[in-house]
């Protein structure tokens, strides 16, 4: 049983938690409670004992939907999509990787010079800000939910003027994993009670309005802790004491 589920069974927290990871300098918030910020978009969480699994239907680059068979995203026992804040980069289903890479390269200006690293990663040499030079990406989920992504949500810094695409091929598998690189600077609500995942773009260096198990609203400010992921320092907000005192 997860820590959140244990708190829920004791009546100390709702069966929901909110995560917001800040980039590029690290920091962020993990709060036991549901974010109350307006503008959250939700999609259903699919039944899964192991993953926060969602129903991804398509990917668009610069507003153009890519020619990808939606079945590679699932849901099925062998084809599925899930979010995982414990994984630094992202992995695309094998059948989705080439259309995605081809679309990014086609939309990249000639001034960004592509090359392939020894490990197979696609990289670019550019002196221009990646968010202004590279295309936007949109993930479309069941029910019309959309996640809008900036170039820094699929590219990562290697060294001055060099950036690589941080969405890797999941070779031989039709499984898509949306890791930290996709999720940074977003409020991410894991609502296990209503079986849904919510998100919105947000400056994660700022406080977030959340609710406690008893419906009380509060604004967390958190307390900095040591990094609990490979790349981000997370601010952990433990609201048990608030629940016990209210």
Protein described:
The strands form 6 sheets. Strands 4-19-18-1-2-23-22 form a 7-stranded mixed sheet, with no helix packed on it. Strand 1 and strand 2 form a beta hairpin. It is mainly β. It has 2 domains: 82 residues, no CATH class; 138 residues, Acid Proteases (Cathepsin D, subunit A, domain 1, Beta Barrel), CATH 2.40.70. It is globular and about 50 Å long. The chain contains 5 helices and 23 strands. The C terminus is likely disordered. It holds the Pfam family TAXi_C. Belongs to the peptidase A1 family.
Annotation keywords:
Cathepsin D, subunit A, domain 1, four-stranded antiparallel sheet, seven-stranded mixed sheet, 5 helices, transmembrane helix, disordered C terminus, mainly beta, aspartic-type endopeptidase activity, Peptidase A1 domain-containing protein, 246 residues
CATH homologous superfamily designation of the largest domain: Acid Proteases
Number of domains: 2
CATH class of the largest domain: Mainly Beta
Helicity, in percent?
10-25%
Roughly how many Å apart are the termini? 26 Å
Low-confidence stretches: 221-246
Average pLDDT confidence is: 84
Pfam families: TAXi_C
Protein name: Peptidase A1 domain-containing protein
Transmembrane segments: 224-244
InterPro entries: Aspartic_peptidase_A1, PEPTIDASE_A1, Peptidase_aspartic_dom_sf, TAXi_C
């Amino acid at each position: 049983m997860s820590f959140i589920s244990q708190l829920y069974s004791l009546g100390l927290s709702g069966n929901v938690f909110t995560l917001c990871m800040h980039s590029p300098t690290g920091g962020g918030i993990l709060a036991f409670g549901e974010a109350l910020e307006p503008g959250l978009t939700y999609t259903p969480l699919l039944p899964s004992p192991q993953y926060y699994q969602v129903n991804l239907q398509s990917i668009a680059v610069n507003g153009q939907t890519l020619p990808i068979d939606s079945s590679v995203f699932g849901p099925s026992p062998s084809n599925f999509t899930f979010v995982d804040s414990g994984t630094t980069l992202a992995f695309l289903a094998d059948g989705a990787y080439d259309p995605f890479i081809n679309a990014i390269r086609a939309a990249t200006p000639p001034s960004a010079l592509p090359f392939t690293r020894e490990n197979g990663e696609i990289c670019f040499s550019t002196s221009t800000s990646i968010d202004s030079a590279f295309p936007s990406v949109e993930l479309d989920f069941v029910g019309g939910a959309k996640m809008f992504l900036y170039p820094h949500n699929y590219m990562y810094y290697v060294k001055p003027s060099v950036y690589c695409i941080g969405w890797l091929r999941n070779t031989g598998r039709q499984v898509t994993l949306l890791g930290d690189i996709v999720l940074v600077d977003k409020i991410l609500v894991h609502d296990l009670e209503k079986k849904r995942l919510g998100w919105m773009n947000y400056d994660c260096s700022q406080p977030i309005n959340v609710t406690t198990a008893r419906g009380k609203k509060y604004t967390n400010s958190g307390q900095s802790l040591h990094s609990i992921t490979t790349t981000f320092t997370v601010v952990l907000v433990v609201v048990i004491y608030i629940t016990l005192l209210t």
